[in-house]
Amino acid sequence: MNRDSMKSFDACTLCLQSAINPMADLDGAIYCKQCIYQYLLDQKNLYKKMMKEYKKYKEEEKLEEQEKEKQLEATRIVAFVEREKGAIPDSSAKKQKEQINNFWLPASTPAHVKSKLKKPSSVILSPKGTPIKLKDLITLNLTPLPTLDSAKEKKSTILTKDKYMCPTCNKSLSNVSGVYCIVSTGNVFCQHCMDTVIKKDLMDPLTNTKFTEKQLLKLEAEGSSFACRSGNTLEATKVTPAPRL
């Protein structure tokens, strides 16, 4: 799997294009501002629709229960009146009815069982399936690469397709470099600068704002299998020698 087959770190999780007015959730996924706003709105409308169907289902269920109670009460009254008249023998003297095994008879066909409808959850989930709220979204401040003049530099930029750089070391940001965001300011830096410089002082070098380690967010980076920068490691548990030919 080469680099062209993977989306860049700044690609929107929803439209897969380079994010416009990028925002990130608490899982590090990046979205276009318009895409995530539209997604949240669609999910809210879907919840309202499902809740409306659920209320309708509960009302129908309540009416069915009331109808069953009425029918049961009517059956009890008729049975009581018939017993008082002596029209039917006592239930203890009744002979048990023979079970009809003919499944094609209308009386033997199983009744339709209405499936139960669960109450929809009001919690909106992200495309990854984790809770997401509008107030938790972080506006990212990405530093674009400077405009290049020389043909050689332009060619190298076209090949790498990198659009943003770390404002501290001026190196391009990519899936390989690792990208971190300071939640309180939204400024984005590469992993090397974050580990070697910024974490030591716990201060945003662009705004001189103090922050805590809990306010550091690693943005999602795509990779191939275990080669991605998600913390996964691949270790061999058994070594089998190659057979000799």
UniProtKB/TrEMBL annotation:
It is found in: Nucleus. Pfam families: zf-NOSIP. It comes from the Eukaryota. InterPro entries: NOSIP (IPR016818), Znf-NOSIP (IPR031790). GO terms for cellular component: nucleus. Residues 2-44 form the Nitric oxide synthase-interacting protein zinc-finger domain. One of its GO terms (molecular function) is ubiquitin protein ligase activity. Keywords: Coiled coil, Nucleus. The keyword Plastid does not apply. Residues 40-74 form a coiled coil. The keyword Amino-acid biosynthesis does not apply. This is Nitric oxide synthase-interacting protein zinc-finger domain-containing protein. It comes from Arcella intermedia.
